[in-house]
Write a structure and sequence with these properties.
Number of helices: 1
Distance between the termini: 37 Å
Helix content: 10-25%
Order of helices and strands: EEHEEEEEEEEE
Structural class: mainly beta
Number of strands: 11
């Protein structure tokens, strides 16, 4: 049976005999690799309210936050001096906001630039510090 290069996970071929212990070993290896990364993933969605100040609150300490809507992407990184929004082929920067243990508050002159356009649907993905 072939193995993946990085983690040695099974790469099944039609002629291989699949056994429970192979699955269990792979699952244990995946869990150990994820735990070693010392982070959690968080996702949610929301509808923008059009305000030029937006606060996002998380169940843990955010490190990286991305908001996606049909026409753009906003990225915030803890410790960065600016946040960035990409809409079509345009790029906008704004102050990175106020970060607390579990939230971020951003103020900008345009609500759509901080992923809060009125009635716009957003998907949010965050990487949080592990507890």
């Amino acid at each position: 049976m072939k193995k993946t290069a990085q983690f040695g996970l099974n790469q099944w071929e039609m002629s291989d005999r699949i056994q429970m212990q192979d699955f269990n070993r792979d699952n244990a290896a995946i869990e150990a690799a994820l735990a070693a990364r010392n982070c959690q993933f968080y996702t949610t969605s929301y509808i923008g309210d059009g305000e030029t100040t937006k606060t996002w609150t998380f169940p843990g300490k955010p490190i990286l936050v991305m908001m996606v809507c049909p026409n753009g992407l906003t990225v915030l990184i803890r410790g960065a001096t600016v946040g960035c929004t990409y809409i079509a082929s345009n790029h906008y920067q704004f102050p990175a906001g106020d970060w607390t243990d579990n939230s971020i508050t951003v103020t900008y002159s345009s609500s759509s630039m901080i992923a809060n356009g009125p009635k716009d649907p957003y998907g949010l993905f965050a990487i949080l510090e592990a507890e």
